[in-house]
Design a protein that fits this description.
Length: 579
């Protein structure tokens, strides 16, 4: 039986030209801001844009930072393979993001920090800050490597663009404009790439709907294929997607992005006022909801087009991650240049995520490791010039490391890729937990915070890896190959093997490996709070002099929460260190 996917390579010179033009424009934005800001470049401008950026570009940047190529490919695959239940996550956006805008944004903005984890040193101690920073760095490196590798692999197998070309070109362009242009280049490039994303996806929906025969046909096929499902109210935490897991678990999962992730918090701080940051969050809400709906509609349209001839079972792709690129190349085979536009759309999402990650990693590494190192050993502090060189150097090094890690993904296999994806969500929960512990629990101390953070991270890490290795595979909806053309060899044998696979369910204690991934963040926050409060109460009982934290470090305390304060810029901090 021949199971190799039938190659599809219809990329033309025009398609390649459009794809590389998008990369060229992104790099040009970085060079432009590097040249424009050459005489007034400071660390504050590189990492925070001078805290004077405009609302709309920052809103687009927040949206683009976590709308990765994995999201575009994954949302479409989810609708095609499992049905519409995941769409309910869009409703939770309207709860999570306003909550973050009015709970987290004022707090972080008034602290006047650059690294989000500076707060943990002010509230607890340097050990808690360092551990949180290390966890953040690990999750971002793993996530960026997968964001760079996964779409490159899917697109290579569908369009024929070599894997090394995708990884190197995308990684280098992203590294160049991030290290040279700083935060302004990242934000304005994210805006450009967001426009490319929306344009490409909307075009796919329009042409795909037209080819299949209209909206009525799409709805009928979705209904017949049992893809329309919104009423799963099971209370079991072992059901992959339910109303409760998506609404409650999704709330905490999204908060790991908007409440404790440096890449997002850094963007809050690029705006001059709290009100501007809150408006940016509301614009971001509309953008993220729109991109979710558009990507899911792409999956619905693809399903309607392949209703009776599934491309995986008919041996035209090797996994469903390749579905959307395959559908686009198949749909646009007679439109020269449009496949190139779509591939540019995919890579725009990857560029946005990686550039945001590089910039946030530079900020965290400079503030949480380099500056404290100089201070602890009483070395001469970094001057403005050296800080600038260090920031650019860090962004460049981190970009090259990401390219290297993306290449390693090629050799370690799909299981490690899944682990890397899980780490991002699994590590975000403990970070959110320790930040909220400090904000909400006045008697929580550094011992409780550190033990809670490490214990929660260790438990989540074990649970995530065990779930990938031993968890039951999610059950797909049914597919049809009744109308496949006869030139696809071994169609029916592939279908019979696929349909006969039995999905084994875990029993007893092993059932925990089947827990819905949407509960991981809530579980992590609960563990941090439970362990952190317990250890704090025990250790406080043996302390003679317990110092209450400054009210300004509690989310509802202090005069600074009630009125704006003067924000000390990064450059002013450097001047103080040099005195």
């Amino acid at each position: 039986m021949n199971t190799a996917p039938i190659p599809v390579n219809r990329f033309t010179l025009i398609d390649y030209s459009i794809f590389f033009l998008m990369l060229l424009i992104s790099a040009a934005i970085g060079f432009y801001y590097a040249w424009k800001e050459r005489h007034k470049k400071t660390v504050d401008r590189v990492l925070l844009g001078g805290r004077k950026l405009k609302v709309f570009p920052v809103a687009m940047s927040i949206m683009a930072s976590f709308t990765s190529a994995i999201s575009i490919l994954g949302f479409a695959r989810e609708m095609y393979q499992f049905g519409s239940m995941y769409l309910l996550i869009g409703i939770s956006y309207f709860i999570t993001q306003p909550f973050a805008a009015f709970f987290f944004v004022p707090f972080y903005h008034r602290l006047g920090i650059t690294s989000a984890y500076e707060y943990l040193q002010k509230r607890f101690n340097n050990s808690v800050r360092t551990c949180a920073s290390i966890i953040f760095c690990v999750q971002m490196f793993c996530y960026m490597a997968v964001v760079l590798y996964s779409p490159s692999l899917a697109i290579e197998q569908v369009t024929g663009i070599p894997l090394w070309v995708s990884i190197v070109s995308t990684g280098l362009v992203c590294t160049i404009y991030t290290s040279l242009g700083g935060m302004k280049a990242v934000v304005f490039t994210d805006t450009f790439q967001s426009i490319v994303m929306f344009s490409g996806l909307i075009l796919i929906i329009f042409l795909g709907t037209n080819r299949v025969g209209g909206i009525e046909v799409i709805y009928q096929r979705l209904y017949e294929g049992d893809r329309l499902q919104f009423l799963e109210f099971s209370a079991s935490p072992f059901v992959r997607h339910t109303f409760w897991s998506i609404m409650i678990g999704g709330f905490f999962t999204s908060l790991t992005v908007y409440g404790s992730n440096q890449a997002t918090i850094q963007r809050y701080l690029t705006l001059p006022s709290i009100k501007d940051a809150q408006i940016a969050m509301m614009i971001n809400l509309l953008g993220t909801f729109s991109i979710l709906v558009i990507c899911c509609l792409c999956g619905f349209v693809a399903y309607a087009n392949y209703f009776d001839c599934d491309p995986l079972l008919s041996n035209r792709i090797s996994n469903y991650d390749q579905l959307l690129p395959f559908f686009v190349v198949d749909l646009l085979k007679n439109f020269y240049g449009l496949p190139g536009l779509f591939i540019a759309c995919i890579y725009s999402a990857a560029l946005s995520t990686i550039s945001s990650g590089l910039n946030s990693l530079s900020a965290v590494f400079l503030h949480d490791f380099i500056y404290p190192f100089y201070a602890s050993y009483k070395l001469n502090s970094l001057s403005h010039g050296r800080s600038m060189i260090t920031t650019n150097f860090l962004a460049g090094c981190f970009g090259l490391i990401t390219i290297g890690l993306a290449y390693l993904c090629k050799y370690v296999g799909s299981t490690v890729l899944q682990i890397s994806l899980s780490i991002f969500g699994l590590l975000g929960g403990p970070l959110l937990g320790v930040m909220m512990l400090g904000m909400l629990v006045p008697f929580a101390n550094s011992k409780g915070a550190l033990v809670g953070l490490l214990a929660s991270t260790s438990f989540n890490f074990w649970l995530g890896i065990s779930s990938i290795l031993y968890g039951s595979k999610p059950e797909s909806k049914k597919f049809s190959i009744n109308q496949c053309l006869s030139n696809f060899n071994s169609t029916f044998s592939v279908y019979q093997n696929s349909s006969s696979n039995q999905i084994m369910k875990n029993e007893g204690f092993s059932k925990i490996y089947d827990m819905s991934y949407y509960w991981y963040s809530l579980l992590a926050v609960f563990n941090v709070f439970f362990i952190g409060i317990l250890i704090s109460l025990i250790t406080n009982a043996f302390e003679k002099n317990i110092t209450r934290p400054d009210d300004d470090l509690l989310v509802f305390g202090g005069k600074k929460y009630l009125k704006s304060v003067e924000i000390e810029s990064l450059d002013e901090k450097i001047k103080m260190m040099n005195k």
